[in-house]
Structures are given as structure tokens and as C-alpha cells.
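Our collaborator T.R. sent over the components below with a one-line note: 'Predict the complex.' Nothing else. No constraints on interfaces, no templates requested, no preferences about which chain binds where. So this is a plain run: every listed entity goes in together, and whatever single assembly comes back becomes the starting point for the next discussion.
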Amino acid sequence: MFEPLDPLLHNQLRLQIMSLLIGIENAEFGFLLDETGSTRGNLSVQLNKLKEAGYIEIEKGYKGNYPNTKCSISALGRNAFSTYFEALKSYKP
Amino acid sequence: MFEPLDPLLHNQLRLQIMSLLIGIENAEFGFLLDETGSTRGNLSVQLNKLKEAGYIEIEKGYKGNYPNTKCSISALGRNAFSTYFEALKSYKP
DNA sequence: TATTTTTGTTTATTTTATAAACTTGTTTAC
DNA sequence: GTAAACAAGTTTATAAAATAAACAAAAATA
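Returned assembly:
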């Protein structure tokens, strides 16, 4: 009847992150911070959860002299994201 | 950019409850229990949260000799539910 | 060189979800 | 008629999650 909703995606910030990443090659930490309006701490935690799940990849490098983190969605993540919205349909009136 | 997702509805069980109630006059506790596959405890807690928010009404009566609880969605709830799905669109690719 | 900025991470607190235990009353079996 | 099992929930306790606050390390700036 009701399709289960991936708990990892069923969170506003993580869903925002995935939504941003899906349409883009990769995104910097700062960009995600701006677009989501989140705090650094929360963003850091949630990015790592998505990474642990294999939904995104995180590349740590430098931009000029400053540390810089680039995130990109994985095939697994892309799939989970689409499955999530598919599942949501089963809750619709 | 991203529409906020009503935290009360952004929970699998509560969303199931609302989804069931929206297409029906009212539903008994036992029916909701069956359809959602939830435990009694969790169902009880989440129904009360929805009631506190004014999203549903709860009528306690009897069915034969046994206590019996009937739930129905309110106008506010109906509205919140539709707003929730509207908001979700802003997360879609 | 002291202070402020940048870019994050880690830890601590609060909130939430869930499950386990309890309550009240009703049947049914002995 | 009383003990055991069942029904329908509620309450409380535990586990998990989300979020915010504090911290860190290096860089820029005054």
C-alpha cells in the first residue's frame, strides 16, 4: 500500500542537498550553504551522512589557499532520489 | 527556492494517516492500525500530535462494549496536506 | 603580530520517533 | 465465579536524529 520512504532522504536539508546536486556537475560547500540556508555544522553532518550512504561523493581540495569541498551525486544517489519521489506518490490522495 | 516542509506531515506514519483520512469520512483506530502496519503505541502518539495541531478530529465512543476511536480529517488538515505536496514540488529535479 | 575571516569539523543539546510496559475493561474457559 | 486471555488504547522510557554551539587550523588583514 504505502511505499517506504528512504529515511536518509526524508529530511529537509538532505533532500535539498540532493535536489541541488542532481541538476549539476558538482557543488561547493559554500554554494550548498547559501542555497539551503543551513548552518555550517548541520550541513557538514548531513553531507557526511549522504556520503556514508554512498549517495554523494565528497572531494576535499583547495580553492586558492582555502580548503574547499566539492560534492557530487553518485549513481546510487540519483537512483535513491528518484525512488523517493516515486514512493511519495503512494501517499498522494 | 525550497518551500519549507511542514514538520508534522514530514513523518511517514503521520503522512500515511493523513493520506488514509483524506479519502474517507472517518476511520477507526483499528483500521488505521491495519492499513499503516504501525504499532498501537506509535499510532496513538501520532494521532494525538495530529489532533493537537488541529489536523484531525478524534471521537471516542464505543463499538459494542469496547472502546472505539474514530478519526477524521479537518479542513485545516486537508489544507496542510495539499500544501505539503505542493511544497515537495520545489525539491523535484 | 594581534585580530579577524574563511572553511569547515566535532561535540553537546534538544527534539523526535519508536517500542515497551501499563491501564481499563471484556470475554471466554475452567 | 474466578482466573486467564483478549481488546483497545495510553503512558513512559529508550533510541535515534536533527540542530546548534563550540572548537580548530590556516590565511588574510590591520
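Summary for T.R.: Residues 9 and 15 of chain B are 5 Å apart (CA to CA).
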